[in-house]
Amino acid sequence: MNDGLLLFAKYAYPPNLLGYCGPGDSAALRGYLQEASRADSGLKELAQHFEGAYPYLRLIAHENGIADPFDRRVVEAYWVGNELLDRVGAAPFFESLVSRFRPRMSGRSFSQLAGLLPHGARPHHNFHVFDVYRRAGLMRDDRALIALERMDQCRVSWGRVVSVQGAAAVVQRSALVLRDGRLGLGEPSAVSVVCRAPLELAPGDYVSLHWGWVCDLLDRRTLAGLVRATRRSMAHASTTL
User: Fold this and answer.
1) Residue 139: predicted pLDDT
2) What is the pLDDT of residues 118-171, one digit of tens each?
3) From CA 118, how far away is CA 110, in angstroms rounded?
4) Residue 163: phi, psi to the nearest 5?
5) HSE on the CB side for 80, CA within 13 Å?
6) Which residue from 137, 133, 93 is spatially nearest to 116, judged by alpha carbons?
7) Angle of CA points 145, 14, 153, to nearest 5°
8) Confidence of residue 44 (pLDDT cuts 50, 70, 90)
């Protein structure tokens, strides 16, 4: 459980620090990240208060016969993307969306959202950003209106490390763009990001990014999973822009 909880905290901390989602005590979450061996029931309680992410974890775990929603495989599926997503059926995914989001949306907007499920939509964080946030206004802070640049920061993305200096890194990253009414990715460009997690980074490494923070190292498998989940989510979102 510790491994999955700490992975969850790596991705959840940046928006929590900004006041966009999760409980109000970002310092407590930061403390767990700084003392990686200290994951306990307190971290689990904090993680369960992420009302956007936690129900997705429960759904993915249930549909894969995994008892713990914070199993590392489940956490990875939601934030990064792996084979567990493909085992979530359209019917239980629909029921989850109905119970959580239909009251927040117009009938037309929810019908558009539900209409993506038969075409392979999956309960990945980037699906939530591209197709749920922009319809339901689910960020805790009213300042975080979902425009293109907000979606770009809120999605989990990837970048290639160019250099590292202390708590900062420069990565080559492709920004989210809108071309001819469809979401896509621009040409990679160098951006400065925060790197405070206990990670040993070197030029050439691929990392996952969330709200301008480095979350984790990506190997070939996890990079491919994130690319696949992102492109699938962009394609689905583009059908209803």
Assistant:
1) 44
2) 999 999 999 999 998 877 655 445 454 458 898 999 999 999 999 998 889 999
3) 14
4) -155, 160
5) 27
6) 93
7) 45
8) very high
* Tokens matching residue 123: 């309960």
User: What's the CA gap between 238 and 57, in Å, rounded?
Assistant: 25
Angle subtended at Cα 197 by Cα 41 and Cα 15, rounded to the nearest 5 degrees? 70
CA dihedral 163, 199, 45, 49 (to 10 degrees): 20
* C-alpha atoms less than 13 angstroms from C-alpha of 179 in its C-beta half-sphere: 9
User: In a 10 Å sphere around its CB, with 0-12 CB exposed, 13-18 middle and 19+ buried, how is residue 8 labelled?
Assistant: buried
Kindly write down the DSSP assignment for every residue of the chain, as one continuous string.
Answer: -HHHHHHHHHHHHHHHHTTSSS-S-HHHHHHHHHSGGG--HHHHHHHHT-TTTHHHHHHHHHHTT-S-TT-HHHHHHHHT--GGGGGS-HHHHHHHHHHHHGGGS-HHHHHHHHTTGGGT----HHHIIIIIIHHH---SSTT----HHHHHHHS-EEEEEEEEETTEEEEEEPPEEEETTEEEE---EEEEEE--SS----TT-EEEEETTEEEEEE-HHHHHHHHHHHHHHHHHHHTT-
Pairing mode, strands 168-173 and 213-218: unpaired
Tokens coding 14: 């940046």
CATH code of the domain made up of 153-238: 2.30.30.140
- Domain spans of the chain? 2-136, 153-238
